[in-house]
Each structure stands twice: as C-alpha cells, then as structure tokens.
Records
---
Amino acid sequence: MKINSIKLAGVIAWIAAIGCGAGNIEEEASGDQAPADDEIGTLEQGLMVCSNPDGANSVMAALAVAVGQQLGRWNATKDFDGSGSMLTLRSGYDSSGPIGKSRCADGTCARIQALLDMQSDAARGKVYIQGSGSTKVLLDPPSLRSRLVAKWNEQKVCDQAARNGTNTDCTTEQNVLSYLSAAPGGCDMNFTFAVKGTNGLALRYPNQLKNELKFADSQNPYINFTDLGNGNVSIDPTYGLNDDGSSSTGSCTAACTKISTTSIAGQCCSCAGVTKSFVKSAWSSTTFLCN
C-alpha cells in the first residue's frame, strides 16, 4: 500500500478507478457533513490511499488511459462488448463513425488489446504489478475479467439513462480526448488529456465526464480523475502498463510488467527491488515481464 499526499486545491477531484491498495479514497471535511461535489475542488486533500489487492485496479485504470490514447474518447458502451465472459473490443462503424478497433491506425489497438489479454487464464500467475518499495501484487485474471464485464454493464445502464446537468448521471455530450503528457502522480503516473466536445468546443458538462469511466470502476483509487481546468483532465495508473512516462532504478526500468509496442526483451528491469531482464510474455507480443 502506498499513502501519498496530494494537493488538489483549485481543481475538481474526481475519483474513478486504478488501484494502489485495498480501499477507496476517503475525504475528510470540517464538520459532520461531507462536501458536495462542487466543493471538492476547493479542498486540499491529504492522505490518498491506493489499493490494489488483486492487481485489477491498476489494469483497469491503465485501460482507461489506453482507451483515451488510442480511441481518442471515453465511450465504452460503443467501443467495447461486455455481453460475454470477458470484455472485448468491437469494430466497424455506427452513425457517428468508426468504433472500437476501427478507430485505431494499426487496426488492433495494440495497447488496449494487451490489457484486455490480461483477462486470459494464460496470464494467471504471471503478471505482477509494481508496488511501493519492495512490494509487488500478482494480478488475478478471473477477478479482472469479472469486474470489467460488470463495470461495462454498469456503464451501459448509465449511458442508457444519460441526462445533462447532474453530476451523478452520464451525459449525452460526447467527448474527444487528446493525450498530452505523463508525470509522477498521487498513486503512480498521472496521464493528462485535453478534452473537448465533438463540435470542437469545451464540454458544457465537464463534471459529468467522470461518469464515462464507470467501465474502469468509479470507486477505483487509481483512476483519481481530476479536472485540471482549461479543458484538461488526468487519471493516475501504475507505471509500465501504459507506453508513455518514465520510471527507473538506476539504468533499469522500475516495472514488473511493461506494455510496449516495440520490443524491450532483454532490457534491464527492476521488479520489487530485484534486478532482472524483460522477456516477452507467451500470450501477448506487446506485454513484457520482468523475469
């Protein structure tokens, strides 16, 4: 478990998914009454508890980042199918244009697919998530796939009842995301996106954008969705599960598992304080394990 101090004064804190411990972020305000949604941005949050007991929080938050990077939007009901035993990417077109894999230049959405492949039993007992210090967490694929399916169905229900103007509802307003940067964050790595509506203008209901991340679990502390103002938002997954950003121990990459669209097999890595080398996983050409 990591406990980090982060200051969110002047921004609207939005907690939605990606793990760093077994629990949710707890906010304390003076008095007995919890702060309203529109007051959270005026508070200075102290202790942030990141829980990731079975690794699913990290992977789900990383999926939210990869979707933003590769699909350029958060619209999981259109782009994914959770009607089966695991979450999968759709493909093809609807009235608004390409969906799922058809939105990716490579036709496969390699980063997204690598994360979805972690639902497979082939990954069982293989994928470790880097924690703080010398800790690591073993991913449980059955837990991951059951949560992804359950949360996609939750997203679907929310989208079907979408209405504008209430922070607890999904919005009818569609979003367009542009990836900007990655930097150290509250749980691990903050990934920042610029967001607009499909008309190219600022969102009219930016506070409701957080509800489009229900597919990654709105109670997942690794999401840590934050409205940074000026049309920028960020979320906070574990380093290594998304291609960008940097984290190292000396000359070695500090990650137990790393997704990369170029081969890093043989490169030095540090998993939970132990120096090893990356090897390509047996089930994915873009997933590398520090073994």
---
Amino acid sequence: MNTASLLTTLPSELHYRGEPNAWVRMTRPGLRLHSFLEGLVIGPDGSYYLADVPYGRIFRIDHGTHEWSVVLQYDGEPHGLAFRSEQELFIADYRRGILSYRLGEKEPSVICDKPAGASFKGVSDITIDDDGCVWFTDPGRTSLADPTGRLFTLTHDGTVTRVLDNIPYPNGIAISHDGMHVFVAATRANAVWRLLRNSPEQPPMAGTYIQLSGGLGPDGLATNRHGELAVAHAQNGSVWVFDKLGDLIRRVRTPEGLWTTSVRFGGPDERTLFIVEAQSGSLFTFRLET
C-alpha cells in the first residue's frame, strides 16, 4: 500500500465555527464543515497556497515552518488558484468569475465575470499555459443528466473563448509537459478528457484519456516535466499517477479522509506529490520513486 504522509493540518484556531452557509447546505447537506480546501498551488517562494471554498479564504502555509496564515478573506467561493507572476494570484471563483489578487492587498479584482455578455455557470479550476493564456473550467451544477459544462480560455487582451460546452462537470485542468495537450477532469463522467491545446479545428476533438471508477470522480490534476499526470480522485481518498502514455504508475492513498481534492508535483525533480484532503483539512506528501 502506497500511503501518503501528513505534512500539516489546518490548525483549530482557523476552523470555521459558524452555521452552515449556502454552499455547505447545497454540497454537503446535513454536515458542518470547518473548511473545504481546494486549489493547491506552490508559490514562487516554495510556500503552499490553498483555497477554502465555502468561507472565501486563501491560506498560505510557510514552506519551512508549516505555519498557516490567512492571506485573503473576501466575499466569494474560491476554487482554483494559479500564480500569474510572483505577486499576482489568479482565482477561479465559483460565484464571481476569474479574479486577480495581488499579494498584500485587501481585495481581489474582477478580471472576467461574463463570457460574451452571458453568465458563467460557476467556475472551478484554472491554469496558465506557457503563452500566458488562462484556461478555466465552468461546471456549475452540470452532470451526466445535464452535460453542458464549459471550458474557456482568456488571453492577455481580454478575449474569452468557449472551447467546449458539453462536459459533465468540468473540474481540474492541466497542460501537458510538452504544451501539446490540455487535460480536463470530467468529474461526473469519472474520466479525464484530453484535447489539443492549439487545435486546427474548432471545437477541438476531445476524447477520454483516463477512465476511473468508484468515488465521485477526478478533481484536481497536475503534470510534471517527466510527462506524468497526477489525478486527485474525489471521495476515493486516492491520487492516481499515470506515465506519459497514460499507463498507471502508482496509486497513493491518504491515511485520513476521502475528499482528495487537489494535487501538485513539487521538489527540484518534481517527484514529490503534495495532496490536499478536504475532509480532515490536511496536506499530505508522498515521494515517488525515480
């Protein structure tokens, strides 16, 4: 059994202790959540940044001390995070769209909240490719019963393009190591889709790259320079790691909780996994063999 090791857990003094809000009542009816952690990114200084979806908080975990701090608390539902520069953090906010937050400021600013005059269904995850183009998913409450979730791009000049509009809950998103492909977690189909990043045809042809079973479905995705793809399997307590051909390398289990929401490769050789488990509010780590 490949089991991750605990790196750090959200300290009790940062637990939310109020009544369940609308997000909790909708997504986890009957439960009281102290947090729901998502959107792990590793900052330029090596620190870890996490989104607390229902309570509008962005946490920073110091790389050396593992001390937690709140760098931003605002009226929103942050899901995905991506650093655009050393000081600018992009936020995929379910209610408010794509936001920009400069570290140290009090509030984020809106970058994009309406595609072509319409409304987003509710955005989820975000990544930025080597050309500076922002890719983000817009699932709302879509599923196999309503497979109308969307994938968008946002360019430097503010142009928003709808790439796909037929995904059953598009969630995590990642760019392949060579920049050729985009991976999208189709959560409610329990699959990871793949499409060409610069396709000569629109909409681009998309296909199932990885098919999972059990749990809820894939959530966060991550790639590394070795061509590997890591998939956080929501409500399965697992991260799956696949090689550049899509063959399974490793299944890594979290020793506590089943709500694996986010994953990142880290370390100088990008062979260390960092895994977010939202049920316990923890960050786990696992070292892959070379």
---
Amino acid sequence: MLVSGRGSNLQSIIDAIAEGRLDASIAIVISNRVDAAALNRAKDAGIETACVLPASYPDRQACDQAMVDLLRPSDVELVCLAGYMQPVRKPMLAAFPNRILNIHPSLLPAFPGLHAQQQALDYGVKVAGATVHMVTAKIDAGPILAQAAVPVLPGDTVDTLSARILVEEHRIYPETISRVLADAGASR
C-alpha cells in the first residue's frame, strides 16, 4: 500500500480486513513522506512500514524502483494507492501490470488530478463522488472499476463535499479490492 497523508482509506481497509469483509492482508505500507499519519495507523495495526523519499534518489524512476524492491519480496498481489500523492512511474507499472489500484475523489473521467472537489464546486456540478480505477501511465485515466455518487448540496464547501465523498471512498475501496482479488484468484 502506498500512502502520503493521514491514512483514512488505509484505515478503512485495515478495518475491513479485521471485520472479515476483506479477505486480504497488507504486507507493507510505503510512504513518500516521513510525517505521514498513515504510517502510524499501519504501525498501530502491526503492519510493516517504510519510507521511500523522492529526494533520496536521482530521479523518479529510481524512486519507483526502490518501491518495487520493497514490494517484490513480500509477494504482493495488488498495490493499492491510498492518498498517495505522486505519479506512479514505469518501474511500478512494469512490475505490477494491471495490479495497481487508486481511489480518486471524483467521478472520473471528470476532474482528474489534484483538488478534484474544488474542481467540482468550481464547475457547478450537482453530483460528485469517488472512483476506484486501475493505475496507468496517464494520471487518473485507467479503467474504472467502481464509482459512488454523492450530491453536491447548496452551500457546500470543499470540506463538506470531501467529507461526504470520503464516506463513499471508505465503502467502495475495500469492496473493490475484494472483488479484484477474487477475480484474480478465479483466473489462476
């Protein structure tokens, strides 16, 4: 699992595993930030953690290769991005083809990239939401696996809209991971 921030989606996955709603285990949580609160959530759950700091590598390719080198020994079947705020590069995509998932706070293909909730408010949409998708070389453009919609209410702010979207993220991400793992197991 790759993280950059507070780790609420990581926590929803940890909880789904603990409650038996997701038959999986998290081998390692890797962050690009030493101060990511998600690392503490992982440690509290007894999950191995690591930091791969981009500034420690000559380029992003080398940084992504370092993450591959951490993930491979654990026989990782699926890499999940949970608030990971860096593009995934060729080394990761080549090592885990069609096995990297991301959760994004919009109904893709609308509002890819950063600040999706602000983009939705600025555009004046009446419905926003969350999308789970496969990661590809193009940001937030991979095949869509699941979506959940939420209304945009009069007077919504980025914070109020984000909070409603986050509830749906926490629901659909573990569900989608479960389905992808079941489909992968059935195809073996």
